[in-house]
Amino acid sequence: MPVPILGNAIAFALEDPPNYFVNWRKQFGDIYTFWAGEMPIVCINDVKTINEKFVKDGDTFAGRAQITELFEITRHGQQGIIFEEGDPWRTHRRFALRVFRDFGFGKNLMQEKIMDEFAYLMETVKSNNEKGIKDHSIQDYVDLAVGSVINNLLFGFRCSENKVEDFKEQKSIIGAVIKDFGNPAAVVMIYRAHIFRHFPFFSTVYYRMIENRDKTWDYFRKNVEKRKALIDFDSDSEPVDYVEAFLRKQKEMEKSGETHYFTDHHLYSILWDLWFAGQETTSNTIAWACVYLIKNQECQKRLQSELTKVIGSDRLITVEDKTNLPYLNAVIAESQRCANLLNSNVLHRTLEDTIVHGYNIPKHTVIINQISSVLYDERYFPEPMSFKPERYLKENNVFEWPEALMPFGVGKRSCLGESLARMELFLFISNLFNQFELSENPEKPIDEKRYFGGTISPHPFTCVMKSRSF
What we know:
By secondary structure, the protein is an alpha+beta fold. The protein has a single domain (9-467), classed as CATH 1.10.630.10. The protein has helices at residues 9-14, 19-28, 47-56, 68-75, 86-102, 108-130, 138-155, 164-182, 184-189, 202-229, 242-256, 264-295, 297-310, 326-339, 371-375, 418-435, and strands spanning 31-36, 39-44, 63-64, 348-349, 354-356, 359-361, 366-369, 436-439, 450-453, 455-458, 464-467. Strands 1-2-7-4-3 form a five-stranded mixed β-sheet. It has a two-stranded antiparallel ribbon with strand order 5-6. A two-stranded antiparallel sheet has the order 8-11. Strand 9 and strand 10 form a beta hairpin.
């Protein structure tokens, strides 16, 4: 039961995510209301209704919960792509999609950049093996590789050796901001954040959020200013990264005299969104895939048997190989399901009156498609807590992506970077396990407990990485 002021925050503090949502679905059914502090949130938990409402009637459910004060102290407001709604959101989502399409999202140009980062990762592992290093932090390797992909896309530079410390610092800061979002104290503060700065415990969280927000903003501001200084705005050259594309559009709109949304504030907010969406989620999914395959050696052996049969060498695997690797695709799909990275999807709000499961839902109701509950629902995934890639393989070993598997969200607010994430997951995981056998160091066992830091990540771990022979 919700408690005044606290709502259901006690449940969030006592149980691991997303167990409370899974249990509430079993107890209350496919639609119920829970409370984040003083904010009631309608929760939808079945695939049929999620598709009917958030996909087929997407415009009605495309709004975002207005959490003005909490977003003010964590990211200077709701501007951007993830938390914005209305014309600014539509404008920036369309612009970002066009820019990324021009940069080769889903095409060979993007693949080449990802492959460059994997090659660097591979050489790092081999070099460390030659030095006698037995314990490899695959999380650190993958973080840096994925971070280089997104930094290259946003700012035009990769996280090479002289940028590693900057990257680690920024990742830790954004990680702290994201972790604060999942803090039960933040859940309580969600509706009226500013008043809680006067209360013990909450005030510590409140001012820490502001401190981390300002550090994040400074990082983006510094890199935008560096990038701006290098741009010749009088030239007609094509932009080479997102920041340049945005700044050129900003100049164009300023010259036209039109009212526009291409402000510096919007740029910093969008960089926050894209950095989080493009780095944190992909990196953690790959880390979880490694954990599952280390802990389930029979799955790793089956995967590498398929790679040996289809690839048969240490050549780098490309997206052209994807259709010939059904078990690999199943491993990636099951890793995404089991990882279940987002404890709770981003809150929507209805933009019109509507009806769900026979209930009248007024305009501006905060509502959520609780995908984290769906991914652990035995109606869609029997034995949901078991890692079973074979569940996606049908007759004749054909891979099939089920309707209930929705790691990127659905409808108009689905993940902007889905095509990039899919490519990264395939290229990194396929090449990683084609090049190396991963195993657990018995002296340093891997803890499979889920660590809630905004997204769900494994606890830091190391593993043995042995080069495969062909």
